[in-house]
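---------- Forwarded message ----------

FYI, see the DUF4386 domain-containing protein record below. Original note from H. follows.
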Amino acid sequence: MTATVQRAAADGSKIDNGRTTATRRVACSVAMLLAPWGFVITNTCYLLAIRGGGSDENGAAALSLYAAQPGLVRLGSVAGMIGCLLLVPAVLGLLRAARNSWLVFAGGALMIAGYVCYLSVLSGGFVTLAMAERGDHPADYAAVIDAGQAETGWVFLIFVVGNLGGTAVLASGLLASRAVPVWAALGILAWPPLHIIGLIFFGNEVPQVIGAVLQALGFAGCAVALLRRRPS
């Protein structure tokens, strides 16, 4: 009698663990499908905002751009913040897909750190947006923005390292591990070079948008691979 009860309890525990594993796999896959599209929206909004000129390279330029395109700035910021939040479970999904790859682990850790910092950068943009919509004392506001960015420059630096370096390391690990389709890993790997090319050679954000779309498609391919994987 006791042995029967113990076997039943063990079988029930296995079922519960299987359901938990499946739930986590599905949740991570959904995050992988959704997270990178937030950055596609962010980059597209910036492309549209600067199509007539402008930038956010300093406080004065950011105030001018935000005042001219508040709707695009707000949409791009919110989409990017949601993408940052969803990126954490998305990266955890990639770690599940390539659990034996140290490159994926290291790159994923850098990406999470970088996008946590990007969440902070984007949230700070709403202060700039409020200043731009208020409209008075632009010189003072610009000085405050520049001073604030000087104090938190290390936050942006971590974002850059995680966004570009972390993504490249993670995608290289996915390629080496063969845990996901090659085209999916290459899609993710396309983001860093296209972003850099856009910054150096183009001023219209087009390469960044293309890179963000390829990255999103790559994440989607990884999500499908994770969903199709047999639970171990």
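H. also flagged this: The chain has a mean pLDDT of 90.
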